[in-house]
Sequence to fold (253 residues):
Amino acid sequence: MKTIYLFDVDGTLTPAKTRIDSNFSNDLSTWIEGKEVYIVSGGSYERIIDQLGVSIVDKMAGVFACMGNIFYQKYDSGQHGQYSEWKLIYENKFKAPRGFYKQLDSVVRESSYDSKAIHHYEERVGMVNFSIVGRAATQPQRKAYADYDAMEKEREQIVKVLSKRYKSLDFVIGGAVSIDIFNNGNDKSQIIDKHFKDTIKTHKIAFVGDRIPAGGNDYALAEKLRKHPNGGAYEVGSWQDTAKLLKTPPFTS
Fold:
């Protein structure tokens, strides 16, 4: 039975918000040959291209960006039977409750973390990415906040509070410093019903991500696959873990 492979990006194929390691890029490019591979990321389509590079993305069968809220797929242009074009298949819209962004501003002000940058939220297709440290933070600032959050569990507390306040929205830990926010059900697991509903009956589907534990933005997809006899999910802690994983079954089949 053929296996289809799905990969997260931040913390799975690259360091968070950083470009792919050049040596791993070469190895990944070789590994992809002859396989059906998709990206499933919380990041935007443009950022995925920036992180992975055009040469890697062009080898993918499709890209599910923004938590699967927008999907681009390769299609046959008719030129020598080769895939050569990308096509937008679907995209969701994010519906923000009244006063929602003012509430996010309030959460930032009330945070006890004192070394903040600017631009704390970004509305993407079908979702919002929210960060206490700020989207304009430097890598050292992001690292400092990630260390702080690992000890204080601030993001977990924010998720609990906002989840109680906004019942129409889901909140999950995303990346190294952020929270992903989307309308109920518009998480990464939506890609199974929207694209792989029939495929999973005849193919195995293996997903690799770093935020698979409960509360992470890979959790819903991982759980949905694990409940299906042809599905599987593999948790990694870094791109180095993924590099090692690709040398083991079922990734060597």
User: Anything to note?
Assistant: The first strand starts at residue 3 and ends at 7.
